[in-house]
Amino acid sequence: MPPDAAARPVDFRAGGFEPRPGRTAPWIAAAAILGAWQIASAAGLLPDLFMPSPEAVITALGRMWASGELTLHLIASVQRIAIGFAIGAAAGLAVGFAMGIVSLARAVGLPIVSALFPIPKIALLPLLILWLGIGEPSKVATIALGVFFPTALATKTAVDGVPRNLIRMAQSFGMPAFAIVLKIVAPGAMPGILGGFRIAASIALILVTAAEMIGAEHGVGALVLGAGNLMQTDKLIAGVVLLSIMGLLVAAGIGALEKWLLRWR
Amino acid sequence: MRAILGSALALLFAASTAHALDKTSVAALAFVSSAPIFIAKEKGYFEAEGLDVEIKFFQAAQPVAVAVASGDADFGITGLTGGFFNLAAKGALKIVAAQSREEPGYNFVAYVVTPKAYEAGFRSPKDYKGKTVGITQVGSTFHYNIGMLADKYGFKLGDVSLKPLQSVPNMVAALKGGQVDSVLLPANQALGLEKDGSGKIIGWVHEHTPWQLGALFTSTKNTTEKRPMVQRFVKAYVKAAADYADAFHQRDAAGKRVFGPKADALIPILQKYVKPEPSADQVKASVSFIDPQGRLLVKNLYEQVAWYKAQGMVDAGADAKTMIDLGFVQGHLDLPK
Fold first, then answer.
1. Domains of chain B
2. CA A199 from chain center: how many Å?
3. How close, in Å, is residue A15 to chain B by CA atoms?
4. Segment B140-159, tens digit of pLDDT
5. How many Cβ atoms from other residues are within 10 Å of residue B201's Cβ?
6. For A56-98, what is each residue's pLDDT tens digit?
7. Count of domains observed in chain A
8. How many CA atoms lie within 13 Å of B8's alpha carbon, on the beta-carbon side?
């Protein structure tokens, strides 16, 4: 090695790839896409028959809002999701905790839950309609089932992940079992459980849309399907936009819940 | 040598006539109501007009209209729905001739109620107020049927709970399970339900609200750029419709429908195309009234568009006048002033 080589400065190269969320870039990108879409529609490149312009979609949303139709659809869907999610999540938490703590529950429950988890719940809708009728119960049950399985599995995995030494320490200090579950296992498992909720919430949104396609007068799924049947493409895309907004709101809601529940971290 | 020359000439001739046939296509449902298309094809009426017609089958009325609007088929024949009028309102489609209509004396679609609802006094189509009714889709012909009843008997459509169930089998299941009080069904299914005791027919649509149920239509582009071709197609279609009417519209002195040898001659043609393949009796129960000259009840078409507009199912700018081309069939019925 020549002596002068040692004197050559070396730049810091290991910067890595560090993607950072930007503040303005996403808005500019969204505006560019919408702008291009609007211009393509106005120029006649996208036939109005098959792809309405963003303006037409916004107008359709405005019209539905003014006539009260939008509120009717939203209330119907949100109600179904809320009830279905509450039932499914509560049952999922109970079964998940049981499988995480009690050997018998794990031995019996885990194979059953694992076997039923991959079934697309929407395939069960016709069966649920036969059992529960065409009204609300069958739709809520579909959502509840869809929410139950990911919640139960995520809870069980999260309980498994709680550091054993904390539990052992509490046990050696003579803490009652119930208090251990409430004060150590539950908070420790919370991040994993909330991760499960995130997945369950998006499944609930998919299922409410699908479930409303049979025998529902109102609901965002009924709106999308009805608009499709009537070839009202502006209303159809307005319904899809609503679903997207609902998905974003649910994700934001769970994010807020996460912040609040995990504030001890 | 001469024989070889002769057969070569014959071949050449055959090839040239085959070449002379214009290729075209029609989108249809595999239902008995598409019968004139099947008859025109099987009896060579299309070929006689120099047309080589391919029948493209679809599962529902909606895709038939979309196929014609998008140019995947030149013609379409099916029931008229809200979706159809929305496509037509955007200038894509033109109605050119009639398909089925609800004609007094010809059973086609029935109002069927559950035995339980019947016992509880639901015995007339005037009693739909407050009932739960299964339909296929929003904006379907069944939806419009209930709408016409509401207008005629003075109840509000909003007072009827309509459940879109997506398919006729779902509607039958919902009626059998008692999840709806009533459904509207084509004669074949309605009679089947009444026979096995799971439904009661309380009336037929033609007794209360006769109307133009279906139509033959093509793209607006075809009516301007290929007008002679459309004329030839409609001519063959109407000829087949006349055969159909001759065979299936016969009634005896008491008004009961009778099916003679002409019907028996056409039934195998229908059985060839209709899916699932019907028995001869099922065909007889399903044959609707199709105008022998392809004439439309034009005023009713205007009324349909007005009704869909009033319900907000068809865009407010829609104009029935622009959706119909009256130039292909002579003597349309009930023209609005």
1. 22-102+212-323 (3.40.190.10), 109-208 (3.40.190.10)
2. 5
3. 53
4. 999 999 999 999 999 999 99
5. 17
6. 899 999 999 998 989 999 999 999 999 999 999 999 999 999 9
7. 1
8. 5
> Kind and range of the H or E element at B189?
helix B187-195
- Indicate yes or no: CB of B177 within 8 angstroms of CB of A133: yes
In a domain, residue A145? The reply is: yes
Contact B82 A230 (CB under 8 A): yes
Q: B164–A216: do the CB atoms touch at under 8 Å? A: yes
Place of tokens 């393509």: A40
Q: Find the CB nearest B87 among A134, A225, A231.
A: A231
State how far the Cα of B308 lies from the Cα of B211, in Å rounded to an integer.
15
The pLDDT mean for chain A works out to: 89
Torsion sign over Cα B250, B252, B255, B261: negative
Sequence-distant (6+) residues with CB within 8 A of B200 are B112, B113, B114, B115, B118, B194
DSSP for A115-164, please give it.
Answer: HHTTS-GGGGHHHHHHHH-SSHHHHHHHHHHHHHHHHHHHHHHHHHTS-H
Residue A224 belongs to a domain with what CATH number?
Answer: 1.10.3720.10
CB contact under 8 A, A229 and B139: yes
Give chain B's count of helices (H) and strands (E): 15, 12
So what's the pLDDT on residue A131?
A: 84
Whether A9 shows a pLDDT value over 90: the answer reads no
Q: Shortest Cα distance from B328 to chain A (angstroms)?
A: 26
**Following CA atoms A115, A117, A120, A125 in sequence, which dihedral angle do they give, to the nearest 10 degrees?**
90
- B159 close to B132: Cβ distance less than 8 angstroms: no
Answer yes or no: are the C-beta atoms of B74 and B218 closer than 8 Å.
Answer: yes
Q: Which of B4-8, B37-41, B124-128, B171-175 has the lowest mean pLDDT?
A: B4-8
Paired tokens of A260: 């609040």
Facing residue for A49 by CB, picked from B92, B164, B312? B92
Task: Give residue A229's domain range.
Answer: 54-261
A241 burial (CB, 10 Å; 0-12 / 13-18 / 19+) is middle
Beta bridge partners of B79: B214
| Contact across the interface for B137 and A229, Cβ inside 8 Å | yes
Query: Pairing mode, if any, of strands B161-164 and B132-135?
Result: parallel
> How does A116-138 read in b/e, with b if 16+ C-beta sit within 10 Å?
eeeeebbebbeebbeebebebeb
Joined together, the tokens standing for residue B194 give 């009444």
